[in-house]
Design goal:
The chain is an alpha/beta fold and 254 residues long. The protein contains eleven helices and nine strands. Helix 1 runs parallel beside helix 3, helix 3 packs antiparallel against helix 10 and helix 5 packs across helix 6. The structure holds coenzyme A.
Length: 254
């Protein structure tokens, strides 16, 4: 079965991470499938809302670390960047149902969702520094803006997880529910939205996002250039090697 499942019902496209044996970590093929699904959802008038979901034990462990080593994104057209531009510019409502860990892009993609529901086991983290990397998905712009600078600095510099209640407090999450209910809650909200006039949803989202789009895309681009360079540098190589060998990284000389 595919690592990304896409299903359309009652105006709602649901995109499901389905790579549980690898904790729903995301390969470049998965980014490509998600970018294509988002583009389809944008073009298809019968799709009015999109929901991302994972499993009740894990949303996503973020980028596949083997892919970071073997297939690092090399151009702006790389699947990960296509996916990120797709969700940042998506004009219809975008929802996420998050239970368990949401690591790296598993968290940063949520800045581009309109509504986020979390299981009480959700653990959000952006451990880019711990991997010798830097933020992506415009999170270096959107996290300080949403959380306040100091809380964003804690999340992005220390890279430690923060949990469902804290995520709700800073405004990343709308509601916390039992993990077994999170996908159903997001679906119910998506169906409510799908029953509303699409032109009003699109216009309201456009007005709320204001003139932000350009700044977000520009920041994504700037981050992407640094990220691409840092993926090939010694600190990241040490972090990825350590993950593969199941040991602690040694950054003492870096
Ligand atoms: N890339 C590739 N493989 C991954 C992965 C990732 N990001 N995250 C987990 N996996 C794999 C593990 O290598 C392991 O594979 P194996 O069974 O072949 O050894 C399997 O998924 C299970 O992972 P494990 O670490 O044993 O699960 P856990 O429940 O103890 O921990 C996480 C779950 C998500 C906390 C942990 O896997 C983790 O921290 N992953 C890395 C997250 C990360 O740094 N992502 C990059 C962000 S930019």
């Amino acid at each position: 079965m595919s690592d990304i499942l896409t299903h359309i019902d009652a105006g709602v496209m649901t995109i499901t991470f389905n790579r549980l044996d690898k904790k729903n970590s995301i390969t470049s093929d998965m980014y490509a499938a998600m970018a294509d699904a988002v583009a389809q959802a944008s073009a298809d008038a019968s799709v009015r809302v999109v929901v991302f979901q994972g499993h009740e034990t894990i949303f996503s462990a973020g980028n596949d670390i083997g892919d970071f080593l073997n297939k690092p994104p090399s151009t702006k057209e790389s699947p990960v960047f296509r996916f990120l531009r797709g969700i940042a510019g998506f004009e219809k409502p975008l929802l996420a149902a998050v239970a368990g860990p949401a690591v790296g892009i598993g968290t940063t993609m949520l800045f581009h969702c309109d509504l986020v529901y979390a299981g009480d086991n959700a653990a959000f983290s952006m451990p880019f520094v711990n991997l010798g990397l830097c933020p992506e998905a415009a999170s270096s712009l959107l996290a300080p803006r949403m959380f306040g600078y100091h809380r964003a600095a804690e999340a992005l510099l220390l890279g430690e997880p923060f949990f469902a209640e804290a995520a709700q407090e800073v405004g990343l999450v709308n509601r916390v529910v039992p993990p077994t209910e999170v996908n159903a809650v997001a679906q119910a909200q998506a169906r409510k939205l799908a029953a509303k006039p699409l032109s009003s949803l699109i216009e309201t989202k456009r007005l709320m996002k204001g003139g932000d789009q350009q700044a977000v895309l520009q920041k994504m681009d700037e981050e992407g250039q640094s990220f691409g360079r840092m993926l090939r540098e010694p600190a990241a190589k040490e972090a990825f090697g350590a993950f593969m060998e199941k040991r602690k990284p040694d950054f003492s000389k870096l």
